[in-house]
Structures are given as C-alpha cells and as structure tokens.
Amino acid sequence: MVVSDSGASPQSICHALPAGIRLSLTIITILIAGLIPLEHWPAQGLLLALVFVGLSLAGVTMRYLFRRLGLFLPLLLVFGLSVPVTHSDHAAWNWMISLWLRCTVSFMAGLWLIHVLPFRELLTTLRRWRCPLVLVAMLGFMYRYTFILWDELRRLRNARAARDFGGGPWWRSWSINSQMIGLLLLRAMERAERTHRAMLARGWDGSVRFLDGDG
Amino acid sequence: MATPEQAAIELRQLSFRYPNGRLALDSIQCAIAGSERLAIVGPSGAGKSTLLMHLNGLLPAPSISADDDAQVFVQGQAVTRKRLHEVRRQVGFLFQDPDDQLFCPTVRDDVAFGPLNLGLDRAEVIARVESGLAAVGMADCSARNPSELSTGERKRVCLAGILACQPSILVLDEPTSNLDPRARRQLLQILKAFSGTLIVATHDLDFVLDLCSRVLVLESGKVQADGNTERILSDPLIMDRHGLEVPWRLRSPARRASEG
Description:
Shape of chain A: globular
Number of domains of chain A: 2
Strand content of chain B: 15-25%
Largest sheet of chain A: none
Number of helices of chain B: 11
Low-confidence stretches of chain A: none
Strand content of chain A: under 5%
Order of helices and strands of chain A: HHHHHHH
Radius of gyration of chain A: 21 Å
Distance between the termini of chain B: 37 Å
Number of strands of chain A: 0
Oligomer: heterodimer
Radius of gyration of chain B: 19 Å
C-alpha cells in the first residue's frame, strides 16, 4: 500500500504528543523548509537532521524510509535539474540543491505525520481547527478510495500478467500500462457515479455532516 | 398478493429507457404488501437493478415533479422530486458492490452517515450506530477502516448503515454475490429477522427459497411470471424459458437421477 497508517508504532514518544501538536509540527517544518533563505546551508542541513531524528523517534525504519524516498527522489532529481538547464548562472545550481533539500524535508515531514497520526485523528483535528468541512470530507473520500483504486490497479496488473507471456517488444508494455491507467480512470469515474447514488440513497442532500464535530 | 390500497410499494405501468435508447423496463405493474418478501429473478440484463433503483428514487424520480406522472408509489405516496427524502427515509438500498456504499474512512462514520442525514441528534445517532452494528454482529469493528474487512463483513456493515436509518422497506441488489457460505448464512439470518418489506434481486435461487414467499421473473424489462416462490421456481418451463434453472432441492427425483 502506498498510503497507509497501519504501520505506525503507537509506543513511540511522538505518538504521545497531542494530535494538534503533531499536525502543527509538520506544517511548521514544511513552512520553515520553504522560508529558509537560499545558501543558508547549515540551517537547511539542521532542519533535515531534525526531521531525520523525528522519524527515528517515531520508529520509522531506514528500510521503509529509503524505499519511500526511492519513489520520490528520481522525480525530484529530474525536476531539480530543470533549473540549471533553463538558467545558466551560478545561482541556478544553488537553487537546484536548495529545491532538492526543501522538497526532501517536506516529504519526510509528511512521512512522519503519516506514521504518528492515524488518518481519522487527522480529520478530527482538521475539523477542530475549523478547516472547511467539504475539504475534510474530500480528504476522507480520498483516503478511502485510495485503497479501493489500489486494489483495482492490482487486479488489472494481475489480469495483464496472466496473459502476458513475455513476448513482444519493450515498448508494448508501455502501451499496455498507459491503457491500464486510462481504464483505471474510467473505472474510478464509474465508481464515483455509483458512490454518489449510494450517498443519495441514504439521504445525502449536499451538506457535509460528521459524527465527531459540529458539522 | 397485495391490493394497491394495502401496498407498501406499487408500480403502475413503470417503463424506463436509458439515454442510449435501450428499453430497460416495459410497463411493469406490481403491488408489494408491507412485510412481504419478494425476490426479483431473471437473466443478466433483465432490468432487475434498474427496477430496484426506481424504488429508491435513484432513477427518473428527479425528473418527475407531478403526481400524475409518477409510476412508483411508496406507502401510497407518489415518488416525485419533492418527496425523494421522505421516500429514501422509508426505503433502504443495499448496493451490489459494498465498496460503492462504504465511502467513509471508518465503519462507525459510515454507519452514522444515514442517521446524520436524517437530522438526528448526536446521542440518537450514536445509539443507532451501535444498534445497527450489533444487529449485524459487527459491534467490535466500529473503528476499523472498511478496506481491512472481508467482503462478507463489508456487506454486513453496509446493511448496518441501512438498518441504522430504520427503513420500513429494504431493497437488496445481489446481496449474496461474492459471499462465502458462512457469510451468506449470516446475511440470511439478519434478513430473516427484518420485519418490514423486503425486495431482493438475485441469481441465488436457494437464497430466494430460504427467504422469500413471492417471486417475480423479469426478462427484457417485462414481468414474465409472478407468484408463489416454490410454484415458480419448481416450474421447469418458466425457468428454462427465462434462462434460469430449477434449484436442486426443487427438482423432481426423475430429473435429479437423469442429471446425476
């Protein structure tokens, strides 16, 4: 599973913090990462180290961390390289490194939050902070349907693997992958329609209401 | 069979055509009494799900504004755009795929969805969530993510979400699909305990035999047969003609012997 809070270790010191503090720390870390001036390398390094310590305290294993970074860093590297490619001055290289550091710190802070704050608590905290209810409801749907669409994708991949006998040129698999993504999009749209019907069937009138809160 | 006066649900010449031009329902006339248990059977594409969606006002009701245009009546009231909320308060709908119906991050939130929309106060909502989950034997799972549950458990949570709204009519679309025998048996027991009107669309004819007293055979959007469950399901002519099979326990000894 790409997104899951099931691996959280509830014994860690980070889990003992109030939910609001955990969410605030994450937001503050991401803000600081974005606001540290360019070329203040010690400050950026210190922030990265702090996030790393936070992840260790939360019980996140190195293996898990590097696997997640392995998914994220290649995209970030390519994105960062676009800066010196389009700007030829010396500052462009500093911008690139700074961008890599800021994004990595923000990504790791997000990983820390996933580990220390179960999603249901996150939604409750956002409601307590008077976050718009529509936004909270959308986050709830997104969380729920991430699992379902992931299962759907797994079934599509299995169906492909069952009839893929290793033949054909390499580019054929790219073509099939793109078809699968398109199919997944269509299925997601059909499911959204059925889910909307299921909501209507239980009296939904467009207003978002929650059991724990004042919605 | 119920007379229109005492019917919980009445269909008057119900017809429906999808936007692509396919006629899904063709002049369906039927009355279903309160506390009656009706099964709708027929081949795939017969119009069963389309018919069920009309009972909850999910199909064309939003476009119907006047009583004179209505073809579906619930507890004597025409299903029109203005009465949709009242109709949905009375008719609980179990969808075929539980993942369509379980859209909240936790079981508790999902079961509470309907009661919250009814405008009940928090204490009453919590009481209904607890009683709904207890009725389906899922009281221990309220904090779980629906993705962690088996298909049978998800179906039971869906049912809890409907029972928490306390409808007088239950409409179930393929309730036993993808269920293992134990989950199927549990579902059967829960439904047997329901005292209101029950309408089930299914291919599971043994389930129909165990649960329903009346069967309606649908094919090409038309009612092909309507009557007592055992009489209809044991009639090989009706069953063969409409792409169905007489359930094993209703087959004659001679037919059983010939089929091994």
